[in-house]
Design a protein that fits this description.
Blueprint: E1 10-11, E2 24-27, E3 29-34, E4 42-49, E5 53-58, E6 64-69, E7 80-83, E8 104-108, E9 115-122, E10 130-137, E11 146-153, E12 164-167, E13 174-179, E14 190-197, E15 200-201, E16 205-208, E17 219-223, E18 229-234, E19 238-244, E20 251-259, E21 269-275, E22 281-287, E23 290-297, E24 308-314, E25 317-325, E26 331-338, E27 358-362, E28 371-375
Parallel strand pairs: 1-5
Antiparallel strand pairs: 2-3, 3-4, 5-6, 6-7, 8-9, 9-10, 10-11, 12-13, 13-14, 14-15, 14-16, 17-18, 18-19, 19-20, 21-22, 22-23, 23-24, 25-26, 26-27, 27-28
């Protein structure tokens, strides 16, 4: 399909589907999707104006609580948090985040149903390198929430653009994970794993796994639906899968699936990844002079040779964006507009045109299904 959607975005998915906490997505230029009816998801307007990281959370009944997004054209701490009425939450401005692609994730407090953590990383350092968190209390401001702590710094590491979370094996606690970036002090094969439990945020487990990659900061990390594996793709480098023990937080290397001969960061790199619901198939977005959505069969004897091109997107006007598993069991794809002359970073968050007003969807990701157009 040629007409795809709003910018390169991140919709954070936290394996919360059973409780409907992932039922509302707020992203892009004022776009929203509600998945209460998985047969016929409904669209709505929100206050997001972002071409970077977006995350949202709903209550156990599927009611939107709040959402956050980064703004590429803004200097320093660009993240804002908005409440369910599409207004900036009290104290919800000037939060760490710079308009990149996987800088934000929301995690509920395991012992207080009214409180949430918003974790954020500074990839390029304009907000001050490191991992930060802010706390949100939904019992305040008549149920619309208030940010009670903001930009609490947990470390000052140079981080790869791949912050994510997964539920603990006990069903109540959480793990936060990111990969350090390549700099003079840290190779980027170090993963930092934090436990969030009744004692708060733990001292991190630092685990050195896999090889040191060539590019230093741009990547994407996604967990399988079961949470026992994650895949990390790195710009201009490779696709790797890892095993993750949800009870101990221990990471072990699984497979290297593919590598790229890095030539030009602008037009040749892996940008996004997502497992199918069963975990058998891996869907990867690759940007080049023609962008591709690729599928790999993780049960194949030769996984790299199992690669199938699901769809391609001509340059200009398109580059492949984020692939994301939704509560309806389908995988959705966004693309971003490229005029063929200038790499669009930063471009105004309000960019809106005929090229980015649609999503594509893989209706049956576990059967190698084809794409269909889904109109926003």
């Amino acid at each position: 399909m040629r007409n795809i959607f709003l910018f390169l975005l991140v919709i954070v998915h936290l394996n919360l589907n059973a409780q409907k906490c992932n039922n509302n997505w707020c992203f892009g230029d004022s776009a929203g999707i509600n998945f209460d009816n998985t047969i016929n998801p409904q669209t709505f307007n929100c206050a997001a104006k972002s071409r970077g990281s977006c995350c949202s959370v709903s209550d156990s009944l599927g009611n939107l609580l709040f959402y956050a997004f980064t703004r590429a054209a803004m200097a320093l701490k660009s993240t804002r948090i908005f409440n369910a009425q599409n207004n900036i939450m009290v104290n919800g401005d000037t939060i760490v985040g710079e308009g990149w692609y996987q800088e934000l994730v929301i995690v509920p407090n395991p012992i207080d149903k009214n409180q949430y953590y918003l974790f954020s990383i500074s990839v390029t350092g304009t907000s001050g390198y490191g991992l930060y968190y802010s706390t949100i209390d939904m019992s305040l401001n008549n149920g619309l929430g208030e940010v009670t702590q903001k930009n609490v710094q947990l470390n000052s590491l140079v981080a790869t653009d791949c912050l994510n979370a997964v539920k603990h094996g006990n069903g109540k606690d959480w793990w936060i994970i990111f990969r350090s970036a390549k700099d003079t002090q840290n190779p980027n094969n170090k993963f930092w794993v934090y436990l969030i439990d009744s004692n708060g945020i733990s001292t991190p487990s630092v685990q050195q796994q896999g090889i040191n990659l060539n590019y230093h900061s741009l990547g994407n990390l996604e967990f399988s639906k079961s949470g026992d594996k994650f895949c990390h793709v790195m710009a201009g480098d490779r696709i790797e899968t890892y095993n993750f023990d949800r009870c101990t937080g221990i990471i072990t290397v699984d497979k290297t699936i593919d590598t790229l001969n890095f030539q030009n960061l602008q037009y040749q790199y892996y940008i996004s990844v997502q497992f199918s619901p069963s975990g058998r198939y891996l869907y990867v977005g690759q940007i080049d002079t023609t962008s591709y959505l690729l599928q790999f069969d993780l049960q194949a004897t030769n996984i790299k040779a199992s690669r199938v091109i699901i769809d391609s997107f001509p340059f200009p006007d398109y580059c492949v964006g984020k692939v994301k598993l939704a509560p309806d069991g389908k995988i959705y794809l966004s693309n971003w507009y490229n005029d063929g002359l200038n790499f669009p970073y930063p471009y105004p968050d309000t960019t809106y045109n005929i090229y980015n007003t649609y999503l594509s969807v893989i209706n049956d990701p576990d059967s190698g299904a084809k794409m269909q157009l889904y109109t926003i």
